[in-house]
Amino acid sequence: MTESNRIKRAGTATLWWGIGLIVAALIVILFGNTIYYAMVGTSTTGGALVTIVTYVLSIIQGVGLPLGSALLGAGIVMRTLAPRPVAEVFEDIEAFEDDEDVSADESLDELEETVAEEVLASLSED
Q: Do 63 and 99 sit in the same domain of this protein?
């Protein structure tokens, strides 16, 4: 498996973990009090269980949405900005620098066009 495929797979996994964590956090934010009151109302004993559930719900409410958003953003960045290995980019730069027939400005413009085309091609593949 190539490096770019590993990055894309990791980006996809990160993206889905972020989406899942955001959905879970939103569900807990919307229905957390209902879950808590349902447990307190049906449980005459088990105060420790209610306390543990309260702490877990509080942690998910406080951390879930920001962490999920960060994972979602990281997944998007990994999928779009890292479509191919860095070594290939440096090889392209060296190939353009070694080309004596092209000026530095022309080679930079050509490199930008090539990278832009490859990014658009990788986005259209998904």
A: no
